[in-house]
Amino acid sequence: MSIPGTTDPSTRDRVADIAASLFADRGFAGVSMRDIAEAVGIKAASLYNHYPDKEALYLASLQHVFARRVAIVENAFKATGGPRDRLKALVSALVMATAGDPVAGRLLQRELLDGDIRRMEPLIKDLFARPFAHMTALLGELAPVDGAQTAAYLISLIHGYCVFAPIFPVLDPSLTTDTSILADNLAEELLGRLERGRA
């Protein structure tokens, strides 16, 4: 989402990135427009020229951050090959999108814990509905399963693993935090489960 009335995308992106990082670190209630303006290096009044209030800037920041994650996943749907190969590409993209953007991960966790899900409904519908439908259809190609439930399971599994990844080496040094190995392992595990369910 762009800052209305501005023509410099780098400024819009910079404001969104900085605001998202602050919201991820401190939560919605812990950040003021003045904090964001100071971090960006502009006057608070300048932010109000583009956003009517903090919530509008917050939603624009969420849109900006999550659009990057969704773009990675959407790109995976362009993969060629059979359903197995496409699932591997999808799992790899989901792992990259989740592990590769800690700000987005923290924002999502904060919003789920502190937020009002109604505030995110337009964002969910706008950004996440299409990739979720693609994922559901792909999983349905692989096995006679409830594709939506399996997609939700897969997303939760990946997000949960990425959230807890920093503590796993303390529990067992053999547990991987390498995203490419994690993606391969998750894809093989899911494919194995789907194939066993088919038999």
Question: What features would you describe in this structure?
Answer:
The chain has a single domain (9-198), classed as Tetracycline Repressor, domain 2 (Orthogonal Bundle), CATH 1.10.357.10. The protein has ten helices and no strands. It has helices at 9-26, 33-40, 44-50, 54-76, 83-99, 102-114, 117-142, 147-164, 168-171, 179-198. The protein is elongated.
Strand content: under 5%
Apparent shape:
elongated
Mean pLDDT figure: 85
Helix content: over 70%
Name of the CATH first level: Mainly Alpha
Q: Give the termini distance in whole angstroms.
A: 46 Å
Secondary-structure arrangement, i.e. CATH architecture: Orthogonal Bundle
> Radius of gyration in whole Å, from Cα?
19 Å
Number of discrete helical segments: 10
Are there runs of 5+ residues with pLDDT below 50, and where? 1-7
Q: What is the fourth-level CATH superfamily?
A: Tetracycline Repressor, domain 2
Classify the fold: give the CATH topology. Answer: Tetracycline Repressor, domain 2
* Whole-number total of structural domains: 1
Work out the number of β strands.
0
Query: Helix- and strand-based class?
Result: mainly alpha
Describe the largest sheet.
Answer: none
What is the N-to-C succession of helices and strands? HHHHHHHHHH
Keywords:
disordered N terminus, 10 helices, mainly alpha, 199 residues, Tetracycline Repressor, domain 2
